[in-house]
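EI: anyone free to look at a 244-residue chain?
SC: sure, send it
EI:
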Amino acid sequence: MATSPPRRTAAGTTAARRPRVREMAAQATQENILRAATKVFAKNGFAGGRIEEISKAAKSHDRMIYYYFGNKEELFIAVIEDTYRRFNEAESKLVLKMDNPVEDLKTLVRFMWTYYQQNPEFITLLNSENLHRGKHISKSMRAREYSSPAISLMDSVLKRGAEMRLFRADVRARDIYLMSAALAYFYTSNRFTLSAFLGEDLAAPEALAYWEDFITSAVIRQVSITSDAAEARPATDERQRPAA
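SC: here you go
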């Protein structure tokens, strides 16, 4: 006669669940610390970001930060890494058809521009790290890991465009990525000081829309074999340019 499998007691079930509960609690604590540290470092920079302020914002304790991240610098590096990771995750959700590389490239450029607008901490954190000449992120073992997906996605679109004889075959994905990032990043990070310098509101909705079309057009024209093959003329050319 077959024997029934041993019944699991309530005590056994509880014991089995404890490691999983502890693991989830630890993960939640680390996540809360990262979110809090992102806000504090984005606001105050690395030098001004205080551990006690971060632990208070995370509703945790200083010792938990040292337990999970080691020290303030390691926490800052983790914040930068997490910032890049979230950027890559958002970009990976883009829908690229690959049968229209012109529109796909526009999608990538617009994504970068929109992401900078919607995630100001991305800009301020990178500004802070650049003030330190990248000395913290240069110690990261994962920095290159986060750059690869963004460049490879751009590379796939450019190669598809070259195959369809729409894009030049001699352009580098890295160069077009830097061009897109530079045009979007500089405007976003300096729009307030530039508004005072130029005497126009660069943060106004119509000014932001104009620059989005401008940089998209500039990128398409840079990679296109002919200027009209890719329909690169920006929509803002048909509208009145934002008044100075």
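EI: The mean pLDDT is 85.
SC: 👍
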